[in-house]
Amino acid sequence: MAGDRAGPAVTRSVKCDNSLTPLALPALAGVARKLYLKMNELRHRIEKEVRSGTDAPQVAYVTIGEDADGQRIDNYLLRVAKGVPKSHVYRILRSGEVRVNKGRVDATYRLKLGDVVRIPPLRVAATATADSYVPAASFPVLFEDAHLLVIDKPAGVAVHGGSGVAFGVIEQLRQARSEARFLELVHRLDRETSGILLLAKKRAALVHLHQQIRDNAMDKRYFACVAGEFGHNRQHARFPLFKYTTPDGERRVRVQADGQPSHTVFNRVASFPGYTLLEAELKTGRTHQIRVHLAQLGFPIVGDDKYGDFALNKALARAGVKPGLKRMFLHAHRLTFVHPGTGQALTLSAPLPAECEAFLRQLKQMAQPGQADPAPTPHAL
Predict the structure, then answer these.
(1) CA 215 to CA 219: how far, in whole Å?
(2) What's the structural domain count of the chain?
(3) Residues 249 and 362 occupy one common structural domain
(4) Which CATH number belongs to the domain containing residue 122 in this structure?
């Protein structure tokens, strides 16, 4: 009886789904498989769209304009990829992840107007993004046109970030001039050196001015006040300079036989008891050149905290002391070069900062007690 009751139930089940014949079963499996694949594809597409909606870095295609025409690809990437380690930039160049016009290039390739550069996703180091804030700043402008910007840099301000400095003049100027398509340093000044700093507003101007520097066609003059009485009206200093790094990571330079050749000419401007004001002509442009040459000659720059007379510097920096000075007395006061746009010679000057003028005034008072207290310029001394 139990079997008789079960029989009709089975029959009714078959009749309700009479399409499921043995021949139809493989077709049903194929439909189910296609449906599963479709749903899986849809799931992946949704996940991809969600990921693309985040801030994940994407491949970028950049068309090179006038601002990068002629620049090496490695330097271009280092400029546009702020905060990306230099080693990573060179790695993606070597691996071919960076492409120019769909082809591989090496680090020395010079970009051309209209090149299309493929830049892969680049992740900025966390420390770089955390310290990325740069306050905008302006500096006294000595000259500006469509090609150049020349400023009077104050002492104590680095020209660029790095070596423990979060930002410098160039980063602050770019922040203040966000509309500028191109702005690059032509040369550098030490952090504690004040005076003329030259920047290019066009790639062509930068290349032209760098060529002048390589050809020694740019005349750079500095005022330096040194400890000691300089005995020559004019003296050439030629010492090979070797760059090295101290154990605590500080960059230094010393005179060494296998160093780079360097040449400075010193002209005596004024003499005072125990001090001399000099004008330095740079014939080469090595790191810390003027400072190391003068220290080697036995006439350290007043206030120089790397190569100077540290006891004297400390004494001069005491409050209320005369003569007194709390900075290094090195100032880029004159620059002559050929304007990259007009082809004409251009000479620019930057006046001595007030604290340097005050120091010279005090020296003159010591040399001539009872005299009036003028504010002489170096040319008048």
Answers:
(1) 11
(2) 2
(3) yes
(4) 3.10.290.10
Range(s) of the domain holding residue 319: 141-380
115 labelled catalytic: no
Q: Are residues 123 and 191 in the same domain?
A: no
53 pLDDT more than 60: no
Please tell me the pTM assigned to this model. Answer: 0.70
Please identify which of the residues 67, 115, 152, 190 carries the catalytic annotation.
190
In the block, residue with structure tokens 């491949």: 59
> For position 226, which CATH number holds?
3.30.2350.10
Cβ–Cβ under 8 Å, residues 352 and 331: yes
Longest dimension (CA), the chain: 140
Task: Give tens-digit pLDDT for 114-124.
Answer: 888 998 887 65
Inter-CA distances, 299 with 16, 99, 275, 280, 360, Å:
110, 53, 9, 13, 17
Of residues 130 and 371, the one with the higher pLDDT is 371
> Is pLDDT larger for residue 89 or for residue 311?
311
The verdict on 89 and 212 lying in the same domain is no
